[in-house]
């Protein structure tokens, strides 16, 4: 692959081993935003070398989640299992250059070595038994044993990098052992594949979770052995759940697609997720365009961010409130049709315009709209409380005034209410509350004149009749 000099290229490289949660997808959001901010390229790479746990179903979940959130990629998806010939080619280059060597230490021998080291209060690690050195005599090669291939990590000096989150990070090479880069069957290991991929794909910036920090020095050594320029790194702190534990499948994390199914808007999730580890001053709510304009690596948080579903619901409510009614209607209609409601009259777009500030999720909004499409019998005790002997004559007069209105508008309906209130010496709640109950079965609705205007004269008179005749 070729690319322009200095052109930003980022990547998202998930493993398809289960559902993808918000903590995972943040590692897609930030590199996507960084690439878009700089007019660069965003690459999707599927790291599917764990053949026992990887599945096509999990791949589809990743693709659907990214599509729902609008995280479009410029290249890919690339699959590591399809790149095995390339990995073996690069491994041969390292063998020829003397950077890797065969190691015949069995798993049982390695476990025993680590037990001895632990007992001696030493750091458990491979001790270099099979590492070739000038003048060193290696053990006899055991018969019938296929070796792993290990990378010859430098034994002195320091390997380090500037991290956009953690600052300068330096690791003494003596703290590292010789990494296995290929298994006995010749299959290359994760850290080796990552380096070859990042090198071939010209990745300039790696933005990933800080669970990869320990991999970085090993990957840097492989880059240097290949004579390739390493990318820049930003290691994001862990996302915690509401109990302060790492957000994970084990600790109650939900699939990204579950938020879609629960009625969250993709722009709301992107907005909330963007603030879960990055900030632009005190801005809490911002458009996708503003996010891409503002995003940089200098304002990534260095402390773990804590997921708060109540805050996400608040952000979602804001986005529902500010979504055009025609778009809301298109999102709500399938939820109603699923329950057998056609929502033909009144117009669903007008209903959503009236109710959009009363719901935090789309199913809640759909539930709110039912007062227009599915009349509910009011609670008997509530109706008895509000349909008093004093209120009933006023309600009968109100029904007559509504029936006689020359035009059915919100303004005309409001004027009818005012006239009846004045005539009977009542306050608005004494009239509005029983009207709400009789028409919708609910004590809480938007302004009663707005509700009546949308319901229409015929429906209003029809619903009032059983209570006032």
From TrEMBL:
Residues reported in the UniProt entry to bind ATP: 249
Domain Glutamyl/glutaminyl-tRNA synthetase class Ib catalytic: 8-314
InterPro entries assigned to the protein according to its UniProt record, in alphabetical order: aa-tRNA-synth_I_cd-bd (IPR045462), aa-tRNA-synth_I_codon-bd_sub2 (IPR020751), aa-tRNA-synth_I_CS (IPR001412), aa_tRNA-synth_I_cd-bd_sf (IPR008925), Glu-tRNA-ligase_bac/mito (IPR004527), Glu/Gln-tRNA-synth (IPR000924), Glu/Gln-tRNA-synth_Ib_cat-dom (IPR020058), GluQ/Sye (IPR049940)
Gene3D superfamilies: 1.10.10.350, HUPs
Cellular location(s): Cytoplasm
GO MF terms held by the record: ATP binding; glutamate-tRNA ligase activity; tRNA binding; zinc ion binding
GO BP: any one term: glutamyl-tRNA aminoacylation
Source species, domain of life: Bacteria
EC number: 6.1.1.17
'HIGH' region, short sequence motif: residues: 14-24
GO CC terms: cytosol
Keywords: Aminoacyl-tRNA synthetase, ATP-binding, Cytoplasm, Ligase, Nucleotide-binding, Protein biosynthesis
Family: Belongs to the class-I aminoacyl-tRNA synthetase family. Glutamate--tRNA ligase type 1 subfamily.
HAMAP family: Glu_tRNA_synth_type1
Quaternary data: Monomer.
Listed name of the protein: Glutamate--tRNA ligase
Organism: Thiomonas bhubaneswarensis
Lineage of the organism: Bacteria, Pseudomonadati, Pseudomonadota, Betaproteobacteria, Burkholderiales
